[in-house]
Design goal:
single chain, about 450 residues, alpha+beta, Nucleotidyltransferase, domain 5, 5-stranded mixed β-sheet, 12 helices, extended
């Protein structure tokens, strides 16, 4: 197992870093004392100036991507400095970004007790230079971009805050979930079939039950569109405690982790399924009730004479759903799904101006000999019907059954009549009573009004 599966959430494994609540020095020996080997016979940071510190060598991260400046920023555990040649330890190049937090050196002769995969992205502070960071950990991902980020883990040394911070780094978080899923898959492999199984293997394991419950709970949330925080409801937790007191209902963070892992595994299967297949893309955009623009891309393939549809992405466009942003979304999705442009043969959109520009741009892609831009038949039919039955267009040929077409007038009168029953409760009640009078056994019907959207 990767993380300790206690009665808390699976992200709160207190033994993952090898330290205990009484391990105040953070060296994993549990004695709470600071030894000379921990200090390395070096002065504390409070007793020396920054200019007198020895070179940081491997514990220092520098990035030569910013211009020369002398500004310095420090706030809430984040320390970053842009130093000039005359400032720092004397080993920086002009215009470098330098971080000043020091990482605790690892003794190669000592066996590490760290079990969690999170320690690939975090490290302990060197308390010889940072005595106030005993209950904090350093993010190596932030350090790689020239920013020192300190995350408080408390005296229990829980990895929960570390996982919460890693979620802000999408690439590293996805890598962590993949590695964790691989380890869980390896641990679930059956034992050697040549050996006689132990009787213990036939007994239900508590950890296995907890994991199965979490997986089933996340599937239930996704299948029935339940809120991710449904497991945090006091009434729901009390109900589950009645069924089994040993089961812990996952919170929204745990559900997000499970669903993200499922997404990664499903994406790998889809990549294998879509290899060397021709496909079609459908794009649509809309504005939500909160006045936010969203764009969605779906992929359609024909497998064994059956249409199969997959949602590629649904993202929020901050700068409006322009043709350029939708095209960038499509290019990103094609790379993520491992699809080749030369297998794209159709791009379906509505008739909006931005979608029209998007379709024309996709049709002009090089190395795409089959791609064609098509308008959605439902959109075109609905728009045509709206224009025809609202009088926005006039017939240019004589009407077959007479000199005049009274269809538009009839539709308008019917719409006014339906709106009358929708706007008056008294009129609606009279309509229901009239239907009951004609047929006492019937269920009263309600009138429906047409809408502009499909």
């Amino acid at each position: 197992m990767v993380d300790s599966d206690s009665d808390k959430s699976d992200v709160d494994d207190n033994d993952a870093d090898g330290s205990s609540p009484g391990d105040n020095d953070g060296d994993g020996d549990g004695d709470g004392a600071v030894h000379p080997q921990d200090l390395g016979c070096r002065p504390l940071l409070a007793d020396c100036s920054r200019d007198s510190l020895p070179p940081m060598s491997i514990s220092q991260t520098t990035i030569s991507s910013l211009s020369n400046a002398s500004a310095c920023r420090a706030s809430d555990g984040v320390r970053a400095a842009i130093v000039a040649p005359s400032v720092g330890t004397g080993c920086e190049e002009p215009g470098e970004v330098t971080v000043f937090f020091r990482v605790r050196p690892e003794d190669p002769l000592l066996k590490s007790n760290k079990k969690s995969l999170l320690w690939k992205y975090f490290a302990h502070f060197d308390i010889a230079y940072h005595p106030d960071k005993r209950y904090h950990r350093l993010c190596l991902v932030c350090r790689g971009v020239g920013v020192d980020k300190s995350i408080s883990v408390g005296k229990s040394a829980s990895t929960g805050p570390l996982l919460g911070h890693l979620r802000t780094h999408h690439a590293e978080y996805t890598e962590y979930l993949k590695a964790k899923a691989d380890i869980l898959a390896e641990s679930s492999v059956d034992a050697d079939p040549g050996k006689q199984p132990s009787i213990i293997t036939f007994l239900p394991k508590l950890n296995t039950t907890k994991q199965l419950f979490k997986q089933s709970f996340a599937k239930w949330v996704a299948d029935y569109d339940m809120p991710l925080s449904v497991g945090e409801s006091e009434g729901f937790v009390e109900m589950m405690q009645v069924a089994n007191k040993q089961l812990v209902v996952p919170d929204h963070k745990t559900v997000m982790d499970i669903l993200a892992s499922k997404k990664i595994s499903a994406l790998e299967k889809l990549k294998s399924f879509l290899t060397n297949r021709f496909y079609s893309i459908t794009s649509d955009h809309w504005t939500s009730a909160a006045t936010e623009n969203y764009g969605c891309l779906t992929l359609d393939v024909i497998d064994d004479f059956q249409m199969k549809c997959f949602v590629m992405s649904c993202v929020h466009h901050e700068n409006g759903t322009s043709a350029f942003e939708v095209e960038a979304q499509l290019v990103n999705d094609l790379g993520l799904w491992g699809l080749e442009k030369r297998h794209l043969f159709s791009c379906v959109t509505d008739t909006a101006s931005n979608m029209n520009a998007f379709g024309m741009s996709v049709s002009s892609w090089p190395n795409c000999p089959f791609v064609r831009h098509h308008y959605c038949a439902d959109h075109v039919l609905q728009l045509t019907a709206v224009k025809a039955y609202t009088g926005e267009i006039q017939l240019t040929v004589p009407f077959v059954y007479g000199d005049h077409d009274n269809t538009i007038v009839a539709v308008r009168k019917a719409r006014v009549l339906v709106n009358h029953f929708h706007s008056s409760c008294l009129a609606k009640d009279k309509l229901c009573k009239a239907q009951k009078t004609l047929d006492p056994s019937c269920t009263p019907l309600k009138l429906l009004s047409d809408v502009k959207t499909r």
